[in-house]
Amino acid sequence: MQGSAPAVLSSLKKLVDPALERHVDGLHPVMREIARYHFGWDDGAGSGKAVRPALAVLGARAVGAAGDEPAVIDAACAVELIHNFSLLHDDIMDEDRTRRHRPTAWTVYGVSQALLAGCALHTLAFEILAHRAVGDGENNGCAAPAAALDALGRMVQHLIAGQSDDLALAEGGEATLEQCLTMEQGKTASLIEASASLGAIAYGADPAKSALLARYGHHLGMAFQLVDDMLGIWGDPKRTGKPVAADLRARKRSAPVVAALTSGTREGERLAALMAAPGELSEEDVALAAKLVEESGGRAWTLEQADRHTAEALASIDRLAPGAEAFADLTEVTRFLLFREW
Q1: Which long-range contacts (CB under 8 A, 24 or more apart) does 157-164 make?
Q2: Within 10 A of 112 (CB to CB), how many other CB atoms are there?
Q3: Is 110 helix (H, G, I), strand (E, B) or coil?
Q4: Which one of 15, 163, 224, 327 is most buried, by most CB atoms within 10 A?
Q5: CATH number of 7-338
Q6: DSSP string for residues in 228-255
Q7: Is the pTM value of this prediction over 0.85?
């Protein structure tokens, strides 16, 4: 579990959430009920730290927007809706029964209704941007809304491809590091890349600046996932909220594991044999697997890659050269996401 969130995340959540609720409340009554339950709006559970919509607003601010422009808020809502569409479906695919210490939506409302609720959020995200793209008297012929709609569509295709690749890797068999990283780019980094740049695109920013924000988001997303992969094996359960070495128990082909399996070392070969063994892994097997991943160089390789992507993300902010406040906020959120406690 991460430490206290930066104050900027809380303030931006308060900025975006009212608009997000208004959009969700326009859904069919059953879809609205499921979505509101999933977001935790009606029982005080809360809807998380809303990092992705915050990045959309911060990206827009970094290119000169005030941040509360309707086009920027709509972009922030769109990325949050897509994120939660993916979570609703991911919980079903992974058969996860809890999220944020509450029963997942599919366990409460059933698989079919939860699937439909995810589809409703997905469609709503595009409706919000499409409304602005076709014009409502505010756009004055600006192409920015259409560009934002196009960027969101491309991102969702990458996200779906990443989820599909993740399912394929979960079936076992051999996997290359290239396959693993491509999966993580689609499953995680594509959404963070779009989140960082979509507010700026919707605002009508210089395409070169939007591209820098996208580059920042890509490297931030990759580093975030690589850190998450390490926490999935070596994270403290009291901080991560997951059992010890949860990813190894599930025989997940995360980056450290694939790096170990493809290392060509004796330890990597022993790990492959252990993970191919039938039946559940015992506590001793899980501990041995974590040891073998580390001894084969899987942990060191993943940490090196996470550090490289972190440096690239921070360098992209430097090249963007936003104002002092926007620079400080983006840097603070970046460090909050990446420098997580073990």
Answers
A1: 158/185, 158/186, 158/190, 159/82, 159/86, 159/186, 159/187, 159/190, 159/191, 160/186, 161/186, 162/186, 162/187, 162/188, 162/190, 163/86, 163/89, 163/90, 163/93, 163/187
A2: 10
A3: coil
A4: 224
A5: 1.10.600.10
A6: HHHHHHH--HHHHSS-TTHHHHTT---H
A7: yes
Burial 234-259 (b: 16+ CB within 10 A, else e): bbeeeebeeebbbbbbebbbbbbbbb
What pLDDT does residue 2 have? 52
Q: Is 302 exposed, middle or buried (0-12, 13-18, 19+ CB in 10 A)?
A: buried
Q: How many residues does the chain have?
A: 342
Distance (Å) of CA 45 to CA 67, 232, 284: 27, 24, 36
Distance, CA of 247 to CA of 225 (rounded, Å): 13
* Least confident piece of the model among 94-108, 145-159, 230-244: 230-244
What 8-state DSSP symbol labels residue 262? T
Return the domain boundaries, the chain.
7-338
* Structure confidence by residue, pLDDT tens digits, 65-120: 999 999 999 999 999 999 999 999 999 998 999 988 899 999 999 999 999 999 99
Strand extents, DSSP E, the chain: 98-99, 102-103
Structure tokens at 58: 């911060």
Q: In a 3-state reduction of DSSP, which class is residue 30?
A: helix
State both tokens at 6: 């930066």
Structure-block tokens of residue 29: 């009554």
Instruction: Give the tokens for residue 135.
Output: 């014009």
Best CA proximity match to 215, nearest among 301, 288, 74, 312: 312
